[in-house]
Amino acid sequence: MAGEAWGRGPVILSWADVLSGKKPGHNVVIHEMAHKLDMLNGDANGFPPLHRRMDRRVWSRVFSSAWDRLQEEQRNGAELPIDPYALESPAEFFAVASEQFFEAPANLREHLPDVYRQLEQFYRQHPF
Fold it and tell me: What CATH code is carried by the domain that includes residue 102?
């Protein structure tokens, strides 16, 4: 196991995985910290507490649409633009998309532009 985030507890990371930098777009530290952010309003579910100016309906629509599209692409045997582990659950989708946002932003912006824009707002990388 590369890492694990506990709801009311610590983040546990494999030091070897932290140092390895397995492949572009993957970062266990970002992944587990995204889970911790997601858990700030309860269980990890891919819906972290949004900033006051962010629209919950837009977040839900964007992430649900992207999730559905990627699941369909996977069923059809297409190569996904992000790690297929993202489709394990909405929480993993948010965490994997966060990894992409910081580690391979051009890829995320090209293939999932609406998700990129939501994360840009969430991580306060763009003015509202």
Answer: 3.40.390.10
> Of how many residues is the chain composed?
128
Q: What string of DSSP letters covers 39-90?
A: GGGSS-SS-PPPPTTS-HHHHHHHHHHHHHHHHHHHHTTPPPSS-GGGGG-H
Residue 41 within a domain: yes
Is residue 127 in some structural domain? no
How many domains does the chain contain in total?
1
What DSSP character marks residue 11?
E
Model pTM above 0.90: no
In tens digits, the chain (128 residues) has pLDDT values of: 555 655 666 656 555 655 676 666 677 788 888 989 998 898 899 999 999 999 999 999 999 999 999 999 999 999 999 999 999 999 999 999 999 999 999 999 999 999 999 999 999 987 55
